[in-house]
Amino acid sequence: MSVAGTVKVRCPACKAEQDTKLVQSINTRKDPDAKQRLVKGELNVLVCACGKQTQLAANVFFHDPDADYYCQVCPGGDAAMIKAAETFRAVGATGTQRLVPSLNALIEKVKLLDANLQDWAIEMTKVLLLASIGVRDLDRVLLFDTVDRAESVIRWVLFDERGRDPKVVASPLPAYDKLAARTASKPAPSELQIDRVWGTRAVEIMITNQN
Ligand SMILES: [Zn+2]
User: Fold this and answer.
1) What region does 62 belong to: left with phi over 0, alpha with psi -120 to 50, or beta?
2) Is pTM beyond 0.85 here?
């Protein structure tokens, strides 16, 4: 069962205060429905009568026991991340452990888990893909969308420099597979934040070692 409660939230558009259901823990085996709503972007969203939809910033703990996978959403910056990392260590959980700053980042992680793709090789793929299509800003918003194994491509959603105007781009799946096979790049169990910063560093190390 998911841990859920009700919180009072003020709509940022019309300022009306209202009760909203907030889910802070998801166990995919006990609550597959919460996971489905998460992936569809329907979880922890304030849908106001005025039409405005707002994603709530909250700590959310995600556990997929079948994949032995844990992910904690910690909005609130580095201090929150450090505290969450300490909690992981104190609990002594085994399996894959991740920390992400937002619910959207968790959604991407869960989509990757469902697609049976390694997040670390995906982050490296993103950096190489941006470079290959001439995007100099390696922080550009680029999100995993789907993997098409029949066409042998990964599809992504690329946003412009202002984080708008999403476009679908594709990259060859074999390029990802090559990275995923690089055990030298694989993060240590203690590396919990596998994000663009991590991916950029991993690609730099890979290139340095090739030269
Ligand atoms: Zn409103």
Assistant:
1) beta
2) yes
CA of 54 to the centre of ligand 1 (A): 9
Q: How far is the CA of 20 from the centre of ligand 1 (A)?
A: 12
Please state, in angstroms and rounded to a whole number, the distance separating the CA atoms of residues 71 and 26.
10
The answer to whether the beta carbons of residues 4 and 41 sit under 8 Å apart is no
User: How confident is the prediction for the chain on average, in pLDDT?
Assistant: 93
Q: Max alpha carbon distance in the chain (Å)?
A: 59
Distance from the CA of 23 to the center of ligand 1, in angstroms? 21
Q: Which of 55-64, 82-91, 148-157 has the highest mean pLDDT?
A: 148-157
The residues whose Cβ lies within 5 A of ligand 1, an ion, are 11, 13-14, 48, 50, 52
34 contact partners, CB below 8 Å, separation of at least 6: 2, 23, 26, 43
Distance CA 142, CA 119 (A): 13
Ranges of each domain in the chain: 1-114, 116-211
pLDDT of 181 over the 90 cut = yes
